[in-house]
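Minutes, project check-in
Item: structure for the 86-residue chain
Input as provided by the requester:
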Amino acid sequence: MPDPFSNFRSGLESPASYLSVVTPNDSSDLSNPCRALNVATSGMVSVTTVGGTTATVYIAAGVAFPVRAQRVLATDTTATGIVAMW
């Protein structure tokens, strides 16, 4: 079945079209800044946003946490099964 939404322009409020497994890394950015993060196991996730702010936030398992992250740091990150959504 063809995608009935293929002619619609995607925005930040739209559902994610792409997912990518994230390996936290203190020195490397994500391949693309994401629009949200999801985790399999709840915990803290340390991120650097596209605005340049670095903070550690709690993310509950199975919930899309809206954040424009450019890096997910290993230091202070306890959540596992991290997936970037964009």
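Outcome recorded: The chain has one domain: 20-85.
No further action items on this chain.
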